[in-house]
Write a structure and sequence with these properties.
The complex is a heterodimer of chains A (about 130) and B (about 100). Helices cover about 30% and strands about 25% of the residues of chain A. Chain A contains three helices and five strands. Chain A has a five-stranded antiparallel beta sheet with strand order 4-3-2-1-5. The mean pLDDT of chain A is about 80. Chain B has one helix and five strands, in the order βββββα. Chain B has a five-stranded antiparallel beta sheet with strand order 4-3-2-1-5. The longest helix of chain B has 5 residues. Classes of the chains: A alpha+beta (about 130), B mainly beta (about 100). At the A-B interface, β4 of A face β5 and α1 of B. β4 of chain A pairs antiparallel with β5 of chain B, so a sheet runs across the interface. Chain B: It is found in: Nucleus.
């Protein structure tokens, strides 16, 4: 039993916990690194439907609605627009895209999409060993 | 339930691939796998430059290794036909640096 009381549960934090538990059942950890993957995987699943900006390692930045994410943190965005369209006209005719996880540098989130306390708590628990 | 990348919805569609070395290749997605290796039919590369318009180099049937893929975008044919590629000037995309 933890000695300090758990943080207050908001509606969104309850939703995240449920997805996190679901993910732990459907994606059993394999040796090594899986634990960190599940945490952010669950977190992104909770963010589906929100508008995010993905900055890639080649400096391209794509804004769109988060459609789905997978275990490799590959991201599918809908209704995409490149942030600096004059500099990067290469994707002018693309409206939906699949972004490989390995090429993502940042995912810029809406400020009200982040429950800092909850993530901090879950990360601390993961670091301790689940 | 280890599902691969959700590229299934893009099979048989025209897609625009951005590779790690900054190239843009357009073609019809024929197949893919868990590692994001893809099979692209009727592909051509679009070379962007600041001096002349977009050059299109015909490639044919290609397999692109997943390691080298950055973005797979669904090309909207209507939007694409409205583009005047011969008048488009841009710096080529930068390569991916890990």
């Amino acid at each position: 039993m933890k000695s300090n009381s758990p943080p207050p549960r908001t509606v969104s934090s309850f939703h995240f916990r449920r997805i996190y538990k679901q993910t732990q059942k459907t994606h059993p950890p394999f040796l090594g690194r899986a634990i960190e993957i599940m945490l952010f995987f669950s977190y992104f699943k909770d963010l589906v439907g929100r508008e995010v900006t993905v900055e890639l390692k080649n400096d391209l930045a794509i804004r769109g609605t988060l459609h789905s994410v997978d275990q490799y943190l590959n991201i599918k965005l809908e209704n995409t627009r490149v942030v600096d369209q004059d500099k990067y006209p290469h994707m002018l005719s693309v409206r939906n895209c699949f972004i490989r996880g390995s090429v993502v540098r940042y995912v810029q989130l809406p400020p009200d999409g982040v429950d800092i306390e909850l993530l901090h708590d879950a990360t601390r628990r993961e670091a301790r060993g689940g | 339930m280890a599902t691969g990348p959700g590229l299934e919805s893009l099979v048989d569609q025209t897609i625009s691939v951005i590779t790690n070395d900054g190239r843009n290749i357009v073609g019809v997605l024929k197949g893919f796998d868990q590692a994001t290796n893809i099979i692209l039919d009727e592909s051509h590369e679009r070379v962007y430059s600041t001096k002349e318009g977009v050059q299109q180099l015909v490639l044919g049937l290609y397999i692109i290794r997943g390691d080298n893929i950055g973005v797979v975008g669904e090309l909207d044919e209507e939007l694409d036909s409205a583009l005047d590629l011969s008048n488009l000037r841009a710096h080529p995309l930068k390569p991916v640096i890990h």
